[in-house]
Specification:
heterotrimer; A mainly alpha; B mainly alpha; C alpha+beta; B: mainly alpha; Four Helix Bundle (Hemerythrin (Met), subunit A); 75% helix; C: Immunoglobulin-like; 2 domains; 5-stranded mixed sheet; elongated
Chain lengths: 551, 228, 322
């Protein structure tokens, strides 16, 4: 067993054209696959479809909001659209996207493993996701749901006449998909690292996925039991959360947010992991403060469990509770700040490429910073009382989830696209799309900060006339954003057949995934690698490339 | 998957070594870690509803005391003993698998299954009794002995049926898994080299037992403040 | 009514508004500086150190570790400052002044109902005097709503079966928005109204315009109609505790615990009397759940709050409910 080193960048993959894509043909070989790479592709198709669906609801909402009156959709329809936009985007896109697409594909390869620890459970995860999606789609087609993605009681249990049970069932099933993915990742990272791959030699993407998986594992079951209790109350008519029967609707909010706040860290931690890997690759430098960034992921995961009641500042919790949660909410911002500053510092005296993945990540860093600091506004209770439940919050979470997670997802998709497909995407179209996304995104959501402060509440179908100008700006931005998202769908699919063929390491990056062919063989490596170098060890690569250039 | 693609010299695999693992040791460690992780999720799952139960207990101590009196401590206690013995037989089954004794494996696994079934049967009797007393929440709730607290007693019963129902569901799943393990033990799959499935079955079973160890005192034994 | 064409924030119309806006502006300055700083730094580094044929590989240089410590310590200090400021403001917003004018509000799908202590009722409209603290005691008849006054910079969720309170002191006359800020169903965005802040004299004039009696006096009638006074007598010999001077006092329960007789206590005592029994009394009070409407509950509450002296005896023997 020889040692795969950085030198072998040139060697591997040239000999055989067999890879995981052409290894076996036929629909069943994909639908019954145990290969983590094929499962990642299955997820890629599913989450893309759900993203388009969620985007459709958003588009309809933004068009309605061009005018103050509710003249395009009925109130009920609008309420269903914002609910389903939230449910689809959160449960069926943001939570699974980076972990189940990029994590599934890349994580085992970055670890030097042949697959995840439990390949069959990995496939089960996808089937659970699909089952949840089918239930969700049936709900949408047969009339939808109008409770808001938060399903607050007693509206969801006693008053809504829509498919609450069906939607919460879909969320419940999707939660299991999430739990199993997290479980798989944790065991894989602990037990299946290649020889020599110690924790401190891991790419930061792995650290981030590890922290994400811990949150997925521990937080999601609380959602499961909350939704179960909701479903029981709705079906049987008992009173867990119904004040008329002795229950407490605020208890629902506590239980719901106990999951849903950590859930937002499930959405952002993988994005930060992608950011670290992309920054390292496109600066050809080790991330500044590697250990700080690694541990900040764990800190965010841990602290994320302690802040849920900042969603309940005006809901009737005691003054002292509120102050404790405010304090902790400020705390959780610190590790995120560390990452932002460390990524920025990595650029100093680096070799900064402006290729598409880096453009997306530079945008990510800026937009996540804005989203993150507006979180500070919300953590300051005296100010939160005014801005909570307004468009200020809507702007905040879209900055972190879309300006953050979606941008990082696009970055990761472009970064690892040659590895996944063996093809390069067209660079100039991709840069154009990235620019459109950045501009469109800011135009859509920045006005919403102002809208919120001047008093426009969220989930409003019709609004006061003085809010119109800002709403029109927002919708204009959304149109640009939409184009920015449609373009990649087109050129990425195009590139699968017509894109330029990619070698094993088109970016000249350091990482185990770049030592195997593009696309990788079914078992990822022809020989198990033995790792003797640090993460992002560009100085060693410099030496190696220096040697070969002299030849 | 051909030898050429693997690139390794083809050596003799244990029949149950999955190909993405280097050796049985790694596979064993991965399986047990996986089961422990799964049990963590179960702790959070049951923990959530137990937390809600406790909050309401603090809010309505009178009703909780009245409702606790309605539970049959004899059946509950019997079930507790039955489950504890089943955990013992399960542990012995794991031991038997470790030493490779097919007879003891089958004996202990069957014993566990029987004790588990006794638990479920007794639970069924209790459920039937509660149903006939009008203690099923919702439209069938016709119990009205203490009108002042009847509504909150119904809330208690929601937790009772919810908690024990979820627990029983986990027992039924456990019984199903036991049957599968029994099938594999029958085929003599397990021995000192490979017994992980029995071990993780044991972990799951012990966990379901521990959940009951919490449920029994909470639902049957702890009395709230009770005033005449 | 003053509405700017392109407002960045609403007019400041309450004592809170200036404080909240100051915190907001401070946050914009600090966070804006950080965000702009990050943007500019990235921009600058990305250009200055861009990849060129003579810069294919990065320089082998690592910034000093001290930077790491700095950008952990400095944000932490700033965050703690923000926490203190935000908490102080919040504390101030939670303390209702003793001399506040009592208004009762009910939220229901999809309207706001306000009752003044003198009995005036309004729907989706609230008249208040300027420069006087106003306390709103509110409950919902159905789902969770949220009463939001953007120009006063305050809101609070309105819950079913439980009283919440909020307060403000308006500083500028005029007409300002009322919004519902917690999604509550079909016409959530229609559950809006106007608060009219008036000069004191104008407010008194408005109040005088037609009323069916103050809330407390209406509550007194209900007190007799529901025969509460048969048990809650003036002196200590009755079957129920004396209610004169009850509101705001500490009460010892049969369990030994001591609770404060606030709005929620009084409400619970009417709807669920068995939950808390006063020491020395039997738990025999019947529940009025389902018999007393939310509006009537508020009138009874106003009445009990007004009791400092003896309670009038029953003037009629009919109207006993059971």
């Amino acid at each position: 067993m020889t040692t795969a080193t950085l030198h072998d960048v040139r060697l591997v993959g040239a000999s055989t054209n067999r890879n995981y894509i052409n290894d076996e043909y036929g629909a069943l070989s994909w639908l019954l696959t145990k290969d983590h790479k094929r499962i990642a592709i299955l997820y890629l198709i599913s989450v893309s479809i759900m993203f388009v669906l969620g985007g459709f609801f958003a588009m309809m909402m933004r068009i309605e909001l061009l005018t103050p009156d509710g003249d395009l959709l009925t109130s009920d329809t609008y309420n269903k659209f914002f609910t389903m936009h939230g449910v689809v985007m959160i449960f069926f896109f943001l939570i699974p996207a980076i972990p189940a697409v990029l994590g599934n594909f890349i994580l085992p390869i970055q670890l030097g493993a042949k697959d995840l620890a439990f390949p069959k459970i990995n496939l089960l995860s996808w089937y659970l996701y699909m089952a949840a999606a089918v239930v969700g789609l049936v709900v949408i087609i047969t009339g939808g749901v109008d409770t808001g993605w938060t399903f607050y009681t007693p509206f969801s249990t006693q008053y809504s006449n829509t498919h609450v049970f069906g939607t919460t069932l879909a969320g419940f099933i999707a939660g299991f998909s999430s739990i199993l993915t997290g479980l798989n990742f944790i065991v894989t990272i602990h037990r299946m690292r290649a020889p020599g791959l110690t924790w401190y030699r891991l790419p930061l993407f792995v650290w981030a996925m590890y922290a994400t998986s811990v949150v997925m594992l521990l937080a999601t079951p609380v959602l499961a039991i909350t939704l179960t209790m909701l479903m029981i109350e709705r079906a049987v008519g008992v009173g867990f959360f119904d004040p008329a029967l002795g229950g407490d609707p605020v208890l629902y909010q506590h239980m719901f947010w106990f999951y849903s706040h950590p859930a937002v860290y499930i959405m952002i931690l993988p994005a930060m992991g992608v950011a670290s890997d992309v920054v390292a690759a496109f600066t050809r430098k080790k991330i500044f403060g590697y250990r700080f960034v690694a541990f900040s992921s764990l800190a965010i995961a841990f602290l994320g469990f302690l802040v849920w009641a900042h969603h309940l500042f005006v809901a009737g919790i005691s003054v002292y509770s509120a102050m404790i949660f405010s304090f902790l909410s400020f705390f959780v911002a610190v590790p995120s700040a560390i990452k932002v500053f460390n990524w920025t510092a990595t650029l100093y005296r680096a070799s900064v490429s402006w290729q598409t993945p880096m453009l997306y990540i530079l945008g990510f860093i800026g937009l996540f910073t804005i989203g993150g600091v507006t979180g500070l506004f919300l953590a300051s209770i005296g100010l939160d009382i005014h801005v909570t439940d307004t468009y200020f919050v809507v702007a905040h979470f879209h900055y972190v989830m879309v300006g953050g997670t979606v941008m990082a997802y696009m970055a990761g998709l472009h970064y690892w696209w040659p590895k996944i497909t063996g093809r390069m995407y067209p660079e100039w179209w991709a840069r154009l799309a990235a620019l459109l996304v950045f501009v469109g995104f800011n135009l859509t959501f920045f006005p919403q900060f102002i809208l919120g402060y001047v008093g426009m509440p969220r989930r409003y179908h019709a609004y006061a006339p003085e809010f119109q100008v800002l709403n029109v700006l927002s919708t204009a931005g959304a149109s640009v954003l939409a184009v920015g998202y449609i373009l990649p769908i087109i050129y990425l699919v195009w590139s699968i057949w017509f894109g330029r063929k990619a070698g094993p390491n088109p970016w000249g990056a350091v990482g185990l995934e770049w030592t195997t062919s593009s696309p990788p063989p079914k078992e990822n490596f022809h020989e198990t690698p033995v790792v003797t170098w640090d993460a992002y060890d560009y100085p060693a690569m410099m030496k190696a490339m220096g040697e070969t250039q002299n030849v | 998957m051909s030898d050429l693609a693997l690139g390794n010299e083809h050596h003799h695999h244990h029949p149950f070594l999955q190909h993405h693992f280097e050796d049985l040791g790694q596979q064993h460690e991965a399986s047990t870690l996986g089961m422990w992780m799964f049990l963590c999720t179960e702790i959070l799952f049951f923990g959530g509803i137990l937390c809600a139960y406790w909050i309401y207990r603090v809010m309505y101590p009178e009703a909780w005391a009245v409702a606790a009196e309605l539970q049959n401590k004899l059946y509950g206690g019997l079930n507790t003993i039955v489950l504890i013995i089943s955990s013992l037989t399960m542990a012995l089954a794991v031991r038997a698998a470790q030493v490779g004794s097919r007879m003891w494996q089958l004996g202990m696994l069957f014993a566990t299954l029987i004790f588990g079934s006794v638990f479920l049967a007794v639970k069924g009797i209790e459920y039937s009794m509660h149903w006939h007393e009008g203690l099923f929440p919702g439209s069938h709730f016709t119990w009205h002995e203490h009108p002042a607290v009847a509504q909150k007693v119904q809330l208690f019963m929601c937790f009772y049926w919810g908690l024990t129902g979820l627990h029983a569901l986990h027992m039924i799943i456990g019984a199903g898994l036991l049957l599968w393990i029994i099938g594999r033990a029958w085929r003599n799959d397990f021995g000192p080299e490979y017994y992980a499935p029995v071990e993780i079955m044991g972990l799951y079973w012990h966990f379901v037992d521990i959940v009951w160890i919490f449920l029994f005192p909470f639902l049957y034994l702890i009395h709230g403040v009770h005033h005449g | 009514m003053m509405v700017a064409d392109f407002p960045l924030w609403p007019d400041q119309a309450s004592t809170f508004a200036r404080d909240v806006d100051n915190l907001y502006i401070f946050l914009i300055l600090v966070c804006g500086t950080v965000a702009v700083g990050v943007f500019l730094t990235i921009f600058y580094f990305a250009i200055k150190f861009r990849r060129r044929p003579d810069n294919e590989l990065a320089q082998d240089y690592e910034p000093p570790k001290l930077l790491e410590v700095m950008w952990i310590a400095i944000p932490s200090v700033i965050f703690m400052g923000l926490f203190v400021w935000g908490s102080w403001l919040y504390f101030h917003m939670s303390r209702v002044p003793d001399d506040a004018l009592d208004i009762y509000a009910t939220g229901k799908q999809w309207m706001w109902k306000f009752q003044h202590p003198t009995g005036q009722r309004e729907i989706n409209s609230l008249h208040v005097p300027v420069n006087r603290p106003v306390k709103i005691t509110m409950a919902s008849e159905d789902v969770i709503h949220s009463l939001f006054f953007p120009y006063f910079r305050t809101k609070a969720d309105v819950l079913p079966n439980r009283y919440r309170t909020m307060w403000f002191q308006a500083t500028k006359t005029g007409r300002y928005h009322i919004f519902c800020a917690e999604y509550c169903g079909t016409l959530h965005s229609g559950m809006i109204g106007w608060v009219d802040v008036m000069e004191s004299a104008d407010y008194q004039k408005w109040l005088a315009g037609g009323t069916e009696g103050s809330m407390a006096s209406q509550g007194e009638q209900l007190f007799q109609r529901y025969a509460c006074n048969t048990c809650h007598t003036n002196d200590a010999g009755g079957r129920g505790p004396v209610l004169a001077g009850l509101y705001g006092r500490d009460v010892t329960l049969s369990t030994g615990t001591v609770v404060k007789a606030d709005e929620n206590y009084i409400r619970e005592s009417i709807l669920n009397p068995q939950a808390k029994t006063v020491k020395g009394f039997q738990p025999i009070m019947p529940t009025f759940q389902g018999q007393v409407s939310e509006d009537d509950l508020m009138k009874l509450l106003a009445y009990v709050k007004s009791l400092t002296g003896p309670i009038p005896q029953a003037t009629t023997t009919k109207g006993v409910t059971q």
